[in-house]
């Protein structure tokens, strides 16, 4: 049988601390209890997903000098959680976001190789560079590294980690490692024998030219924020074109945007549910906070049901700390004003319309067809799904959408391999001892 569709990869994002999750929903559980992690991981494995994914924040976010506690706050350390999940799952990949700016390669390589051993070859590492000095204050004097230095450090970090992972021969002998670079010096043997995957799968989530080049040179998967068809295709073409310069094939790097979904028995019902979820995600209070984050100013006197502020954003504000800032605030303000004017939208309606819109909305069939279309049109190789209910928000997707993807021949009906690398269709790393 000739396949009608390209193969699709799926991963499950445990939502962590944000307002994508509707924490006020009575079905929402704890973001800390092991039972929550276990539920989502078991569901993802039941759905034959490639991997389970955890984000990371190294400092509680602050807003106007106080801990931002409108949503939930606090979460356990990711690799520890994944080690526990390794014991209650069998095939599911287990990926943790861990900063290359605030860790040391020898120690992190040990922890990742250990997870790879304990899970039988299912470890993944999302290498982030962590953009803000605020987060850095707990880790290094002065907190900061500029973007170029962060990526230079990440490159050297990954190079050193791979040297450590390759330092044991496949037949079990430890050989000495020597590494001297601008950021790290390592000398001596590595403590952990070669793990089942050789190298845990490397994921990258950064968007700058430096970030894209880093991914093209070194990553196996990109977690991207380009979840629309148009932006997804542009990002996909840009990143895949960068691979050849590093002697790599386009299939060596899988692009997986983070996306949300809302299902219904009819498309209209799904759209209604999606609109209701958006209103829950963006309460009047959350709308003002979202605006303050962009504007960098105290806007508490503004009415969420009134018009956008006339005053311009303060570009270098530190009002909101610990969030990844993606775009220029002046440019966002101009876009929001134009939209609000064109459609007659209030502050809250503008925030609902512009931030975190649901990516795939409709009946299970509509959503399945759309996912396949995005993959066929090369806007993605797959998706990291972000449910809006923790931990049960993936259940319906696995029960109702996965069978349709399987029916169309685009998704596995059983795991064929044991390792995350094999689920992703990636080659085993060549041992460079
Ligand atoms: C989709 C996506 C998810 C990210 N998730 C995290 C995260 O969980 N923890 C973190 O510290 N940084 C995260 N980052 C931020 C990256 O680490 C990086 O610091 C930031 O994007 C700046 O890098 P850039 O200049 O290459 O974009 C994420 C970025 C993107 C695009």
TrEMBL record:
Residues where FMN binds: 97, 151, 208
Tree of life domain: Bacteria
Keyword Protein biosynthesis attributed: no
InterPro entries the UniProt entry points to: Diverse_substr_monoxygenases (IPR051260), Luciferase-like_dom (IPR011251), Luciferase-like_sf (IPR036661), NTA_MOA (IPR016215)
Segments forming a coiled coil: none
Keyword line: Flavoprotein, FMN, Monooxygenase, Oxidoreductase
UniProt key word Methyltransferase: no
Pfam families membership: Bac_luciferase
Listed GO MF terms: monooxygenase activity; oxidoreductase activity, acting on paired donors, with incorporation or reduction of molecular oxygen
Domain Luciferase-like stretches: 28-378
Record PANTHER family: ALKANESULFONATE MONOOXYGENASE-RELATED, C2H2 FINGER DOMAIN TRANSCRIPTION FACTOR (EUROFUNG)-RELATED
Record family assignment: Belongs to the NtaA/SnaA/DszA monooxygenase family.
Protein name according to UniProt: Oxygenase
Species in which this protein is naturally found: Streptomyces inusitatus
